[in-house]
Amino acid sequence: MRDFLTILNVKIDKLDLDGATARIRSLLGDDNSSLVVTPNSEMIAMAAEDSELAEILNSAALATADGAGVVLASMIMGDKLPERVAGFDLINHLFSDLEQEDYNFYFLGSKPGIVDRAVVNLKQKYKNLNIAGYHHGYLDKELQEEIIAEINAKEIDLLLVGMGVPLQERFLANNLAKLKVKVAITVGGSFDVLAGEVNRAPLWMQKVGLEWFYRLIQEPSRFARMLALPKFIYLVTKKRFLKN
């Protein structure tokens, strides 16, 4: 039975990294296609004002806490999540866990050329990983249909979609029924990191919840987006203590 915490009307599973990986393994054995999302505080705050996005996130078979802000929110609510399960950490755990098994991956997203470099880097690190195909995420209607046909022809088990929020969520909400995949995972900017375009924060910064600050230093243009974090904490605190 699924065990989750609801934060601002978005369900977040009470699982650590190993538990999330085990859930995906289970989903790979299902007959239907399953959606996996990795909401961070910005996404949950966005979903508080966007009922369509909230509905998509809540339709997922698994939603992990991607960000220290989400774990902090769970503490404010008095129901602490086991740990942060970042989307980037989750997919790398899957690469390592499934490398020796017969599962096919397809990567869809990011700018032209970025996902190509991500694949080159991944094949150097995970030599036995089955990457059956990849394509950038700039799709018009005709190209989108071509990519869906390609994915279906290749019998993909895990489709990773990195188009940014909420485009990637809406893409999968509109197309998952057409896709013959076992599991589709929204991965945000993970392809940029895998390609070496963006660096992750040092491990110590990740552990103390300062990865957002490291990203801000690298990309000052993200400042406006970072304002979503205090707004998110305010909304959670208000809901927790000012219910009426």
Description:
The chain is α/β, with parallel strands linked by helices and 244 residues long. The model has no long low-confidence stretch (mean pLDDT 91). The protein has one domain. It is globular. A 6-stranded parallel beta sheet has the order 4-3-8-7-5-6, with helices on both faces. It has a two-stranded antiparallel sheet with strand order 1-2. 48% of the residues lie in helices and 14% in strands. The longest helix is centred in the last third of the chain and has 14 residues, at 228-241. It has 13 helices and 8 strands.
Give the topology, please.
Blueprint: E1 4-7, E2 10-13, H1 17-27, E3 34-37, H2 41-47, H3 51-58, E4 62-63, H4 68-76, H5 87-98, E5 104-109, H6 114-125, E6 130-135, H7 141-153, E7 158-162, H8 167-175, E8 183-186, H9 190-194, H10 203-207, H11 211-218, H12 223-226, H13 228-241
Parallel strand pairs: 3-4, 3-8, 5-6, 5-7, 7-8
Antiparallel strand pairs: 1-2
Helix pairs in contact: 1-5, 2-13, 4-13
